Amino acid sequence: MLSEVNLLFDSAEVSVGQHYYWEIGSYSIHGQVLMVSWFVFAIIASISFLANNQLKPIPEEGLQNLTEFFTEFIRDLAKTQIGEEDYEKWVPFLGTIFLFIFVSNWSGALIPWHVIEIPNGELAAPTNDINTTVALALLTSIAYFYAGLSKKGLGYFKRYISPAAFLLPINVLEDFTKPLSLSFRLFGNILADELVVAVLVALVPLIVPIPIMLLGLFTSGIQALVFATLAGAYIGEAVEDHH
């Protein structure tokens, strides 16, 4: 169990290519990840403000329709994965996770970050960095532990010896492999997609990369959906009643 925790935190040291570091005290931080993350936050906040500044009871067009579509989509996802009794309190969390990953992935697929020069390294989608995906996975783990403990108290830990006590090691190991799976799945898919596009653009810069980029947009959205769905499933598993 301890080795799984160490592996998860050690994975934050994995780097692909060069990075632009900010030195804060004794810590080195990937500055390019924070810059693009703030850009993603700004997009989400701007669209939310513009869409909800003047709400209409029945919107006919515009951004309010878009935000209401995403809200209903996340509500349906949460209800399906968590259940009608507990899903409403988790809609903001799942919505935030989904939107951040979705906009981050699309920013990497649509915006030519490489044309912006920085002292070292290059800009890319935040989800192209293992630190970001590990942080999202750890937040998800904290969320489903909190969900289970807040609903069941210490009785939550009975799940580790259910349906039999000899399954305790396996059930404990499962909780530590979940964030590993979440973080490396997202990181690997986004990194691979951006590397494929970069190679094709270098080899055949005009026509071939276009369908690959369109496919990248689709798979980027799917990765955001998969992460949010699994997060909801883990929370739903934590709060469900075992009989």
Automatic annotation (TrEMBL):
It comes from the Eukaryota. The chain crosses the membrane at residues 29-51, 90-110, 130-149, 186-208. It is a multi-pass membrane protein. Keywords: ATP synthesis, CF(0), Chloroplast, Hydrogen ion transport, Ion transport, Membrane, Plastid, Thylakoid, Transmembrane, Transmembrane helix, Transport. It holds the Pfam family ATP-synt_A. InterPro entries: ATP_syn_F0_a_bact/chloroplast (IPR045082), ATP_synth_F0_asu (IPR000568), ATP_synth_F0_asu_AS (IPR023011), F0_ATP_A_sf (IPR035908). Gene3D superfamilies: ATP synthase, F0 complex, subunit A. CDD domains: ATP-synt_Fo_a_6 (cd00310). Its main location: membrane. GO terms for cellular component: chloroplast thylakoid membrane; plasma membrane; proton-transporting ATP synthase complex. It is found in: Membrane; Plastid, Chloroplast thylakoid membrane. GO terms for molecular function: proton-transporting ATP synthase activity, rotational mechanism. Belongs to the ATPase A chain family. Key component of the proton channel; it plays a direct role in the translocation of protons across the membrane. NCBIfam families: ATP_synt_6_or_A. F-type ATPases have 2 components, CF(1) - the catalytic core - and CF(0) - the membrane proton channel. CF(1) has five subunits: alpha(3), beta(3), gamma(1), delta(1), epsilon(1). CF(0) has four main subunits: a, b, b' and c. HAMAP family: ATP_synth_a_bact. This is ATP synthase subunit a, chloroplastic. It comes from Ulva flexuosa. The lineage of its organism: Eukaryota, Viridiplantae, Chlorophyta, core chlorophytes, Ulvophyceae. The gene is atpI.
